[in-house]
Amino acid sequence: MLPTYRNNEKSQSEFHVLCCKFRDLSKQSEFFICCGLVFVFYLIYGYFAELIFTYEGVSGWYITLVQFFYYTIFGLKENAKMHRQVPLNIYLLLAFLTLGTMGLSNFSLEYLNYPMQIIFKSCKLIPVLIGSILIQKKKHSFMDFMAAFAMCIGLVFFTLADSQVSPKFSGYGVFVISVALVFDAVIGNVQELAMKKYKASNSEVVFYSYGIGFLYLLAFMVITGDFFDGFQFAWKHPMETYGYSFLLSITGYLGIQIVLTLVRTTGATTAVTVTTTRKAMSIAVSFIFFTKPFTWQYVWSGLIIVLGIYLNVYSKRSKLTFTEFIGKFRRLIHRRKDESRQKLLDI
After folding, report:
1. pLDDT (tens digit, 9 = 90+) per residue, 126-185?
2. Scanning 39, 219, 220, 241, which has the fewest C-beta atoms within 10 Å of its C-beta?
3. Is the dihedral of CA 65, 67, 68, 70 positive or negative?
4. Which residue from 108, 143, 115 is spatially nearest to 129, judged by alpha carbons?
């Protein structure tokens, strides 16, 4: 169930990642390339993200600060000769939202295991759906809401399972990651509006969002004293902090570039669907490489969330409204009744 393109038409956009450029591709080819790269980069990203937080005493906020620094350097390399297209006030907002979603996500790993964090992030569709309605005034099909409902049910049961078997479960961690999802509800839609309206490049959005976000977070951590605590840990464990964070950041940066391309070409909701699908593989990788308690409730509650993802993708091809769904359901009931009467008559 993929986005459909008429006559394999050519994409008018060009996107590049560091030294690699893609141009004159069909939209369908561009979509498949983006999906493949998202899977590769973010699977590696997920491995290092969990690896870093296996060390006792690591600060989620300090790791976020290091990530923002690396992203700013990467963005500066690609954006050095370009002029800013998006107004600065929008980047001030985007930087705050970026800091909220990434910082709180990293911070939550101090209280939750990685699969639990991923499963919450997999349900990003729910706040993005709400955000697209409130911010962009979009209308969604009945299937979109059914997908969100399935994700909510699966998320509840996955959380219950994790609270029973995981030694690293925390209600506070659930609250933190839930707040991060609120930021996610806004950031994807703001990015989509800004990039389409002002024709901004991926590297420009990354550079200003993370550069300003770095200054926000640095000031906050210096004032609260968290910067000095994080620096002391990093001084004692430079490889675990700066080395792994570099690998985390380079794969995350490349992944962000591709996700922004998906946002530009297919919209925020489709981009979320692609990134959500790769999270299922990240959970499998997590259980393979890192020892943790397991229960089959993880599996079937995760499958309910996968069902929600499928319904969301299906809704892109079938814009079924609630009224149409009720009509089809009634016709199905009537057909069953007619068949039952016919069988009785035959007897």
Report:
1. 776 776 666 666 666 666 677 777 777 776 777 667 666 666 667 888 888 888 888 877
2. 219
3. positive
4. 143
